[in-house]
Design brief:
516 residues, mainly alpha, two-stranded antiparallel ribbon, 25 helices, ST7, membrane, Suppression of tumorigenicity 7 like
Length: 516
């Protein structure tokens, strides 16, 4: 009886102790949270999580929705794209802020040739690199640029207007030959053949040269009032000829053609010919000339692009990246030149956060689309496709990018609400990029800030405790029965183990244990 009585007391003591272990553990967790609240920045993290969830679900704040939808018409109408207001940044500079519902799509300055490049990809892989939406935008561009300025449209112009709208490539090519039969000097038809039918860059260059000769002859015989569309066509042809020279390795010739084109038509800055020039100069490793072009176009009054921002970052990173070491920088701190390079990288990443994953080869590249969305994944693909080789050529530049690019997101914790050097990140980019990029490509979205596991675990524990407290307050008797059943089930294995130990151990052992 003595041994059995002490064994029962031991069992009851264990049951009693387990009842309070949970309460002691919960008190220790609360104490730990209180002690570590400052080092872990719990309040900032929770606020960030709440804001991220809200903007992920609703996109804009309630006040912003009301002001845009109801107050702005009463105060002076809806902003047009040509009269956008200015949004002041942290450093006092002003950036043009786009309309809330608008995501403007731009022509890709470095778009590839359909017949010589896009079609060859389709022949090899069986996949279509261009979406119908992207090609339809190109058709609209061609109609507006090449056939939209004459008072009296000729018969071949009518044929070419229909040709640009054709969805079938073979139908477009047949229409181009039909226009050439009507007029052997139809430059637009030769342009279409160079873009669509030519299977090599050399063949495309030959057709573009024929188009240039035909366009110049047409321009000489035309009345000056009706030469607007012909000028647009000549600019397009000269630019594509420069791109052909670049692709065929005649880079200095391509640079000269681009410079002459920019000097001859300085008002056509919307074509972004300077981005073609920057890429060609980087291939020549003419970094002083690249800096001169950036000094002209990396201006606060001009629209930015990934090419402008990341080329500026590349030049500054190149100056320090060869001797850069994260360990040495953590010991002695960053020098002035290294700080400038890091700030330039942060600026570029804030403008387009999708580019680093392609430059660091954390995400696979595809052929760039014919149109891009600034700050979107389509622009990142187009930039990295042509400029990855230039980052690799600068020794240590990718290492510096790898070590510093993620720090940008600590500077802008709420990207949809507030920017740092630029206006807030547009929420419409993902939808527009899905229209521009093929379905087999996984569209990159704005990097999400994930809460630490400790925060998620603590939040779940607190929620569970609050639920138990509410149920105990509402149904005390029922919860008492439930707790008794829970703990009896929980300690059943322990009781079974104790019984087995009692049967295996000699009685003298338990006698000695009780005496202790």
């Amino acid at each position: 009886f003595f041994e059995i009585g002490h064994l029962d007391k031991l069992k009851s003591w264990l049951s009693w102790s387990w009842t309070y272990i949970c309460a002691v553990w919960f008190a220790m967790v609360l104490t730990m949270i209180y002690v570590l609240r400052s080092p872990l920045k719990l309040q900032d993290t929770l606020t960030s999580g709440e804001l991220w969830w809200y903007f992920r679900k609703y996109g804009t704040s309630f006040i912003e929705q009301v002001s845009v939808s109801h107050l702005r018409p009463l105060l002076g109408g809806v902003e047009s794209s040509s009269t956008t207001g200015l949004f002041s940044s942290v450093n006092g500079e002003a950036e043009p802020r786009p309309s809330v519902s608008e995501c403007k799509v731009w022509r890709n300055p470095l778009n590839l040739f359909r017949g010589a490049e896009y079609s060859r990809y389709t022949w090899v892989t069986g996949k279509e690199p261009l979406t119908y939406y992207d090609m339809n935008l190109s058709a609209q561009d061609h109609q507006t640029f090449f056939t939209g300025d004459t008072q009296q449209i000729k018969a071949e112009d009518t044929v070419m207007q229909k040709a640009w709208r054709e969805r079938n490539p073979q139908a477009r090519i047949r229409a181009a030959y039909q226009a050439i039969e009507m007029n052997h000097e139809c430059a637009a038809a030769y342009v279409l053949l160079a873009e669509e039918e030519a299977t090599t860059i050399t063949e495309a260059e030959r057709l573009f040269k024929q188009a240039l000769r035909s366009g110049k002859r047409e321009q000489r015989v035309q009345d000056p009032v009706t030469t607007g569309k012909d000028i647009n066509l000549l600019v397009y042809i000269k630019r594509r000829l420069a791109m052909c020279a670049r692709k065929l390795g005649r880079i200095k010739e391509a640079v000269k053609m681009m410079r002459d084109l920019m000097k001859e038509f300085p008002l056509l800055g919307m074509l972004n010919i300077h981005e073609n020039l920057l890429e060609a100069l980087l291939e020549l490793q003419a970094y002083a000339d690249v800096q001169a072009v950036l000094a002209k176009y990396d201006d606060i009054s001009l629209p930015k692009s990934a090419t402008i921002c990341y080329t500026s970052a590349l030049l500054k990173a190149r100056a320090v990246s060869e001797k850069f070491s994260p360990e040495a920088a953590s010991r002695r701190g960053l020098s002035t030149a290294e700080m400038n390079a890091v700030e330039a990288i942060h600026r570029a990443v804030e403008f387009n956060p999708h580019v680093p994953k392609y430059l660091l080869e954390m995400k696979s590249l595809i052929l760039p689309p014919e149109h891009i969305l600034k700050r979107g994944d389509s622009e990142a693909v187009a930039y990295a496709f042509f400029h990855l080789q230039h980052w690799k050529r600068a020794e240590g530049a990718l290492n510096l990018l790898h070590c510093t690019w993620e720090g940008t997101f600590r500077i802008i914790p709420y990207p949809l609400e507030k920017g740092h050097l630029f206006y807030p990140y547009p929420g419409c980019t993902e939808t527009a990029d899905r229209e521009l990029l093929p379905t087999f490509h996984e569209v990159s979205v704005y990097p999400k800030k994930e809460l630490p596991f400790f925060i998620l675990f603590t939040a779940g524990l607190c929620s569970f405790t609050a639920m138990l407290a509410m149920l105990t307050h509402q149904f005390p008797e029922l919860m008492g029965v439930f707790v008794k059943a829970f703990f009896s089930t929980l300690f059943t294995p322990l009781g079974f183990f104790a019984d087995k130990m009692e049967s295996f151990m000699p009685s003298s052992f338990w006698h000695q244990l009780t005496r202790i």
